[in-house]
Amino acid sequence: MKRIAGFALNYYKVILLFAILIVSSSVTQDPVQNIKNMIMIQAPFVMIYSFGMTLAVITGGLDLSLGSIAAFSTCAAAFLIIEDQIFVGIAVCLLIGAGLGLLNGLLITKAKVNPFIATYGMDWVIRGAVYIMMGGAMIYHFSHDFKVIADGSFLGISNLVYIAFAILAILMFVFQKTVFGRNVYSTGANIKVSRLTGVNTDMVIIIVYMISGVLASTSGLLYVARLDCAEAFLGKNFGLQALAATLIGGTSLKGGKGGVGNTVIGVLIMVFLMNCLNVLKVSTLWQDAVFGLVIVVSALLEMAKQRYANYLQL
Amino acid sequence: MKKTFTVFLVVLFSISVLGVSAAPYPGAVGKKATLILKDLTNPVWIQAAEGAKAAAKDFGMQIEVVAPIVSNNNDEQIQLVQQAIAKRKDILILTPADSKGIVPAVTELNKAKIPVINLNTKINNESGRANSETFVVADNIMCATLCATELARLANGSGEAIILQGPSGGQVTIDLTKGAEDTFAKYPNIKLVDKKEAKFDRATGYKVTQDMLITYPNLKIIFSCNDEMALGAVKAVEEVGKLGKIFIGGIDGNKDAMASIKEGKLNATVFKNFWLQAYTAVEAAAKYLDGQKLPALIPVDLGIVIKSNVDKYLAM
Amino acid sequence: MNDTILEIRNISKSFSGVPVLEDINMSIKKSEVHVIVGENGAGKSTLMKIISGVYRKDKGDLFFEGKPVQINSVQKALNVGIGIIHQEFNLLPHRSIGQNIFLGREPIKSNFLKVIDHDLICKKSKELLDYLGLDIDPRTLVYNLGIAQQQMVEVAKALCFKSKVLIMDEPTATLTRKETVKLFEIIRKLKSEGVSIIYISHRLEEIKQIADTLTVLRDGRIVGDLSIENASIDQIIRMMVGREIKDQYKRQYHMHGEEVLKTENLGAKRFSNVNINVHRGEIVGLSGLVGAGRTEIAKTIFGEDAIEKGSVNIYGKKYHRMSTQKATKLRIGLVPEDRKEEGAIMEMSIRHNIVHAVLPRLFKSSVISKKTELAVATKYMEELGIKAPSVNKLVKLLSGGNQQKVVIAKWMCADCEILIFDEPTRGIDVGAKAEIYGIMSELVERGKAILMISSDLPELIGMCDRIYTIKDGMVTAEFSRTEATQEKILAACV
Questions:
Q1: pTM of the model
Q2: A181 Cβ contact partners less than 8 Å away, ≥ 6 residues apart
């Protein structure tokens, strides 16, 4: 009994994932296409910007400006991409993402603004800027060469999957195998000890927010390529969705724990669950409530896991 | 030197007088108006602002166009109304974000004896204390009826249909949904199978449509409450190779929606002509200030945009 | 006997096996000021916390007005008539004086709605403040008060409970001379109205002015009760420190090497004009009361606090600005006072903590090899005798002594040349203390330089080659190993 409880608590996310999948597959006529949709198209987008959030959360902060960074950087880049300056456009997009991340990082470390306030405030500022820049216009009808980045596939697998997993692999390597990654975790776990051990904690935090900005721009760019339209509204709910995926994945808001690997699971649970509610023909009105419930329950289960860690010999 | 300057002044003066006398509504010249919109970021409202400014120029009025910073925020709209009262404007054109929520502000306007022209979304006047001179509208129910009828025609009056909605509770969504539902109900072989919220947003429209295509493999009609979601739906449908088998319609008549119609992807949209709506509202204001009597309702022409007529609209 | 208000009989207390108080017997008389003195760690605060219900005693009895009482909570102590004013105040800064005085027992207007009677609070608080000679509006937020005024609010809080015994733990530590005089006036006034005061202090010169009776505590035992007329300061100091220096400090003294650390007129927030130096193979001590500026000096040398004046010279090179990154690169290590918040990351493993400082040097390519990391961590864990089942154990699960060894291991692993130890043995059991002394001795024998801060005088004298005394942010004296005695040091610190 103890063993079963321990197993369930340890692997509840995977169990949940399969449970949702079984339910949704049993009611759809084309489960293969459905799973393909989710894993190859819906999940990669969410994953990429959720990784940015996860990294910020590991340092003990969070990044609510993901969505507006995605919108601003892609809209600015779209002016170039529409003129077929694809590579310049992509470079500009990622640079703007990094630059806005740098701004967040400086606000948090040098001006000592609380990360919530800094990135929430920046979200408004950047969103406002992109509205002004676009003046209500949209940029669409990009060239095939650009759209193929998100539309194309290789060996029957969508490019989005390759991109998301390449990013995942790089992040996993950097954050688990390098000195920088280690310092990110130690800074999140205890910034004071880290500083007193000679870690340049300000630099660590700034770099993390820059990475987060670049990831936001990347996912934004993929959206633009996929939907063939750059617009000022892009990514209005990125920040909160990413936070939800991060929390469901089990990265603690206290910092120093969790990781992008957990967030992959978090994103999959989120995407699978939304899909499941849709295919079960549950009214949209219920979806938000169910979603919130999952966040709260996963937080409770994480706590239970910690509390009974010794008892259940996890 | 002095003489030439005087002559110049006289000429200038007479030109301006002539200009004024050429105005169709002399009573409105130089009057100050405020137009309060729902927001100033969405392209349609930006078109509306431009229409209003063009009309103000034509009729010699001064106009100030404002909108809440947080789009569709009722509290901010109330503050904007109060500012207009404080500035002693001659007339106010109001597009309420919340039909009921705006009532106290309109009551204040009535007390301050500032006339109100209601634009686009009706002010709820059940209490009788929120009076406006006229209602200028491109009616949403009418829009939905036009678009849904076209979709039903394309689908030969049969098949499964879904509606993509904006955030629940919004007046626009409620009206559009009602129009579409009522239209589909007239066709016994059309079955409305689901209504899904997609946040008025393209990415969400895309994702929700993907799920809907799985859930309803025999889907025939997608009615979307705006063009953004409709274009997301087009993308999802295109990816499963069902363009031409599933008929998709949007509302608003955005430029990229029309471009999509021209390519033969999107099937229909309704051009709500926000530019004309605002122009008409300002003209109504000018007429009122000139002492003319206004009808209770001033409808603005709506146009269904389909492949055969899209070039005409694109040229506008 | 009937003028005794509080009697303490055979009270004992130990923390995780380490005895802190042993067989304490004491009696407090009605309307007297009873002063308790003793070194840091002698057990004064523990005793007071037992009397006021913060800690539970292991053994012994308390009698209040001749009747035995069980005090097992702060609330109980207050109800009996014992109030305490802690060194750190328990005030809510964003509430008013009145709200603080009546916190948790606000008078209510009606029993049904439980509406707080703010007018009554205001009126009663005003009376109390008037009594204490304080002309402040009771609606003022505590946030806006000075330290002395905050202390008066604490006194008012205790009076409001009609406390018959009032404990004051180092009340003058943060007060100016003028404020101290004022506090003494109030103490005398309270005394004249029959309140007994238990007064804990380090400041021997004040004691003469205020005390009626004096009890000296040392190592958890009472070493003497004196009436104040017969006591001289010298006598008190001797009683406080009278412990023999045992052989637990295994120091061997050699010739010192070059000077590696020197401060020149160093000044920052809490200290100024500090000139000290440390050579290779030498342990230099900093002695002083809590709050004298010792920790601040250490943190400024290490670059955590900014240098405002003067410079720090490392290996003969002058630095006017320092950061923790620079300090670590210069192979300086700090073992901080607050192990849990500043020393080690509690939520991470022993392995992560040990290699934390050496990471950039150990893995030049920036890629961590788990094998190397494990080998290094295991080596230092064994070398320092850290008792844990594996290097992957979280530090929070270790005992205090082992946690401290992890912090030291971190700096040894980073091959530090200059180590600063701030209270390295505080809260550590006797066995682990000896081990830490052993490690420190070995480090200096290997030619490292150590700057050591400690409130434990025997430890400081036993370990150090030289000792600087600090008072109010200034160096007051320097003693060599042969000159240093506890009496001399204490006299230079107070």
A1: 0.75
A2: A174, A175
